[in-house]
Amino acid sequence: MLVGSFNSDTLRSTGIDIVNTLWAHNISAQLAKDARAPEELLAQTRNADYLWIVIIKETSLKIKHLAKREAPDVDVPISSLVSWIKQESDERQWQASAKMRAQHETIGAASSAFGVGDRSKLKVTMLVAQNKSKKFNRQAAVEDAEAAGLNLLQTYGEGNIISSELSEKTLELVKHTAGVADSEGWKRVEASVPATERKYVRELLELLVEMSAAQQEASRAAGGIAGPPGVLLHNFRSGSCCIYQF
Q1: In this structure, are 174 and 234 located in the same domain?
Q2: Distance CA 30, CA 40 (A)
């Protein structure tokens, strides 16, 4: 949580009191830098893992949701801030638990259809940016990727999944390349994505080349019996996925 104000004196008095109160209740909070407009406060949340921004007003607090951008701002009395945060946190935890239970039920149903142990045929590789990547729950991301990979399992019986935080636009560009040997297509992808994703795209291509080579080697060892002709590309931020053909 980021605590801010458009008045520097208020920020250094009431703001510090609020941060200290939140810390006393084991709630992570940080005091914002001086800002004159909401846009300047929002700019301070980039590359950080804040759920909310608290803006100190004259007699109350305005809370902006960062995890749910579509949610309206909420006005809360200063005395009610801690209880409001705990209520919101409990609701988020319940929703996350419900989603995880639903994924387990879906995976379990598919595993029954294919026989015990078929879930092990889904191999998830996490591709995470080395710098300035927002925090994430790795186990939850793997389980979400496994759930998304059920379509691949139903089609081929086994499969590899690469779970990353590449934007959906970038994944769509990757999807339309003509396989890992399409060097010109991959150059176009790299030239079309933001500078922050270019190294990420190169790492993805390296992974795909390795997986393609491993699949071909396994096919030769099995006497020409082909395995899955591609992988599932999964975005662990949005949950979207697509099949990429080698």
Answers
A1: yes
A2: 15
Which two tokens mark 71?
A: 């949610």
Checking if the pLDDT of 19 tops 80, the result is: yes
Convert the pLDDT of each residue in 135-168 to its tens digit: 556 677 767 666 665 554 554 445 678 888 888 8
**Cα–Cα–Cα angle for 187, 217, 232, nearest 5°?**
50
The residue range of the domain holding 82 is 2-87
Mark 141-159 as b/e (b = at least 16 C-beta within 10 Å).
bbbbbbbbbbebbeeeeeb
Report in angstroms the alpha-carbon separations of 10 from 35, 40, 63, 65, 129.
Answer: 12, 17, 16, 22, 37
Bridge partner list, 93: none
Task: Give alpha helix (H) positions in 129-246.
Answer: 138-148, 150-156, 168-175, 183-192, 195-221
